[in-house]
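Before a colleague's protein record goes any further, I have to sign it off. What it holds is a sequence and that sequence's fold in token form. Would you go through it and say whether the fold makes sense for this chain? The record follows directly below this note.
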Amino acid sequence: MSISKGIRAVARSPSVHKAVTADTLVSMGYPAAGTDTSETFARKLSAVDRCIEILSDSMGKLPCFVMDSRTRERPNLPLLQLLNVRPNEAMTPFIRKKVLETSRQVSGNGYDWILRDPRTGRIDELIPVPGHLVQPWRDMAGRVWYTVTHPWTGAPMKLPNEDICHYKAATRDGLTGVATLRRASETIASARAQQQYERSFYESGGQPSGVLETDADLGGYAKGPDGKVLTRSDGSAVKLKDQLRGEWEKIHAGPSNSHRLAILDLGLKYTPISASNADAQFIESKEVSIRDIARYFGVPLYKLQEGKQAYGSNEQNAIEYVVSTLHPIVTQYEEEMTWKLLTKSQVDAGLEIRINMMAELRGDTAARGQWYKDMLQEGPFSVNDVRALEDLPDVPGGEHRRASLNYVPLEDWPELSRLRAEPQTQEE
């Protein structure tokens, strides 16, 4: 079943709820268009854009698998074809997860539309829907519904809870998430103001402003060659000092006019205003903004090419990123997909959808190698278990697990010690 067919089928459904309006979205915690929490505004900051890209890329590259929580076996269900091969006709699995996580960060909510075969109930496609097109709500009985606004026709579609996988950011009521951009709105607005100040500084030639001085009287109005007073488009008269300022900026303002030779007449004298201590500390304030933004997203500074770069600390930061930032996000995805994508009988049988976070650590060869070594020596993993995590085929004899004999219960130590000493006694 194609995406377009699925959309048309649901859109024809007589069971619809009211369409999503701009006022409704704002009341739900979504940023209004044109405000300082909008995605377009915020992602003009390189730190914000990179944080969203890092998190969405991290989620996009993590593969899914189904595990039996009772036996730890991994059954190969047809659902894995959707999760790891092709979720819908337009997207790869990586793009689907990237779109979901981007929407969760930007709007506070990521939505997966589950399209099922109406005859068999089998899941045919998983379609990410932009967060601003979906409105969750409860009916009088407390049941959760979702109103999805058709992205092309604008028609509202009422979908039951079981047809939407909902991934939330920070939430107050458990029904809707609050976007990271909204929670960090003041920090983002401050950083954008710094960015705009810097742009203005360089557009002015990269130099501080100055003062033009003259002993002449500039209190009159500017006149043209015909002797008439010059006027603006609104009919107001142009003052002589405004004309002088405009002529100066036309010649000397902007990067292309930087350090251009100035010729002063009429007794004019230009005095530049020296940079203040605040200007000297401008770079430091930008670094503080980057750190604040990184805290909101939970992204370590080294991933933003900021802070001190040291292999040892970066390795620990990478582990902290996986444990503290990615793991909670992954847990929510796993729980929501398990409940919505598996059947009730499969859930009752102990099946769970899991996300393999080892893909996030593939770049750290030393850490991964040490972890494999520990798992092999202590017995949890076999050689084939390790090869499976590295996408390698099994080898003969690789299914056996090993454990060290150096550690024994204390009550068995005297007997084992005596047996170890016996051969030496016989040789003597």
